[in-house]
Amino acid sequence: MNLNLNRLSRDYSIRAEQLSANPATSDEVLIGRIANGDRLAMQVLFARHHVRVFRFVLRLVRDEAAAEDLISEVFLDVWRQAGKFEGRAQVSTWLLAIARFKALSALRRRPELELDEETAEAIEDTSDTPDVALEKKDKSEILRKCLSGLSAEHREIVDLVYYHEKSVEEVAEIVGIPEATVKTRMFYARKKLAELLKAQGIERGWP
Amino acid sequence: MNAKIKEAQELPEDVELLLPWHAAGTLNRRDAARVEQALANDNELATRYEMVREELGEAIRLNESLGAPSARAMESLFAKIDAEPARKPKVTFSVMAWVTEFVGSFQPRTLAYGATAAALAIVLQAGILAGVFVKEGAVGPQLASYHQNDPTVDGAFVLVRFKPEATVSDITKFLDENKATVVDGPAAGSGLFRLRVAEKPLSQGELGSVVKNMARNPVVGLTVPAAQP
Questions:
Q1: Cβ neighbours for B194, distance < 8 A, ≥ 6 positions apart
Q2: Are residues B112 and B202 in the same domain?
Q3: Which chain A residue has the Cα nearest residue B52?
């Protein structure tokens, strides 16, 4: 019996290695297997995407423990709904859409998660003068701080475009807004970022 | 109303709105060419593009600095999955997923000259496979659960790897000649297909002669008897 268990465990590990090492095992293939109850395929999909989904959720809810709970809910939905995945969008786009829905639902249930919708103001209220701030931190650091200071709506679109590499169409699908709005929302997010930078003493000459 | 008009007036041209996606490399070829053209002709736009690239770099750094979730997330997920009611395996078949997996199973060099025929052959085989399932009385995305005389379980099977240069007609002819149907594959890594060569299990000798006969066919690179599932 032990021997059989060892063999099973070894076969399982070999299959896991093959599944993760073979680039041919696309996300769509994994979803097909998950729809059939393949726990190992679920493990591979989780390993492949959970960090990015976690970061996306964390930037929205700003609470690590809540973000961890939410990603486990996101992937549980994938386990349950895999049979309904139609393949019209990339699996990563589908995951982010589920993650966004879960994060926003959590924020509605627990408004304390969204500490401040507009952290920007807190940044603008810095006691340092712009010159002092520039002396203390380099431009990159200030830029990252200002990116964090954007509103949730602007943070979301900036992350989807810059970090999650989503096209205009994919962002529209994840956020549930028209493509034209995606472009203008990104423009206004960048404009706000420029204003925050200006308040920190970094004048970019735009907009 | 006035606010909307003001907003519309301050919006730049579409090509400038596309700069973030151009920097991230997510524009389609036509839009990317349009942006490239505009950047080449407009120094001011090129300067703004540099700002976008700067933002892109820092947004990536910021997100990468967020770290990763603890093992608790995975443990919690699989505990919940284990608590879910057991799912009955279904014989499902997705042509797109199969084509993706099959084409991806070739090495790039092999793929260069073998992909087109292989992809076409697969579509044809998908038709054959679907035909088998339809004949067995299970149709559509929910192809019913296992039942008696399941073509993926009952019968005799061999594992075959087709040569990359095999054409559509080569493969269909091979399947016809051997009265074989594809029931699974390609296996991850090996690219092996599982073919059903008889409706009932064959003796070792009988299966051996089927394998020997198949191995003579120039269309296949490898043929071996498959264990009963």
A1: B157, B158, B159, B182, B183, B184, B185, B187, B226
A2: yes
A3: A190
